[in-house]
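re: the backbone from monday

yeah here it is again, tokenized this time
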């Protein structure tokens, strides 16, 4: 017979099991939508960043690929972007509440370009379907207006959306809090993506499996700086 104590613990055990079972990465290629204060330059940077990650995924031995992004017109919900950014900065990267204005946007991986002041971010998964939001602050604002910085900030947040975490090496793409590195470190007179660590590559392989076990998806165009 099940004890009274076991019955009392059952809801907590079920909640823990569900949290444990939630996949840390995508189980299928997401529909990527770019919206908000987006222009031709920022859209091109997203496509280049997708190409960067598809090369990294290939190098990691997995057939998983991100599809090309599509551009959807619409205003950026600035209040929602700022609120979600604050929640993630407060340590709620895995549980931050998603503002309604952001949850209603089309797409599964939604890259929203804002025009206001906030720290760029990648949200946790939310909704019944796998969905994530990437918020990018205005490209005309410091430090994204520095040469080469916006390219790497977009790629950095896409890395989080794929399931990678920060490291403490300022010469690598995924460096970030609590390490003392930030977007200005990406400044360069030439267009270049910062590299990954070997730990990042192993994490991609662990998240998305060997090539033989995953169906191939449509790859983004392999263009842009390496």
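seq for it, each position gets an aa:
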């Amino acid at each position: 017979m099940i004890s009274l104590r076991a019955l009392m613990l059952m809801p907590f055990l079920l909640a823990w099991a569900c949290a444990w079972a939630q996949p840390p990465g995508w189980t299928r290629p997401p529909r990527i939508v770019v919206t908000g204060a987006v222009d031709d330059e920022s859209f091109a940077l997203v496509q280049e960043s997708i190409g960067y990650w598809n090369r990294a995924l290939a190098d990691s031995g997995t057939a998983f690929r991100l599809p090309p992004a599509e551009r959807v017109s619409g205003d950026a919900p600035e209040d929602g972007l700022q609120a979600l950014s604050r929640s993630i900065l407060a340590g709620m990267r895995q549980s931050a509440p998603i503002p309604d204005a952001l949850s209603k946007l089309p797409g599964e991986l939604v890259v929203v370009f804002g025009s206001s002041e906030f720290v760029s971010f990648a949200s946790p998964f939310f909704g019944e379907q796998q969905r994530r939001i990437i918020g990018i602050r205005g490209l005309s604002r410091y430090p994204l207006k520095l040469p080469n910085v916006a390219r790497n900030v977009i790629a950095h947040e896409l890395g989080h959306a794929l399931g990678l975490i920060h490291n403490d090496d300022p010469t690598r793409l995924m460096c970030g809090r609590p390490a003392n590195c930030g977007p200005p470190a990406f400044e360069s007179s030439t267009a270049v993506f910062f590299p990954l660590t070997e730990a990042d590559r192993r994490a991609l392989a662990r998240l998305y499996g060997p090539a033989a076990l995953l169906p191939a998806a449509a790859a983004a165009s392999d263009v842009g700086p390496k």
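Residues 65 and 161 are 13 Å apart (CA to CA). Helices lie at 4-21, 40-59, 78-89, 100-103, 149-162, 198-208.
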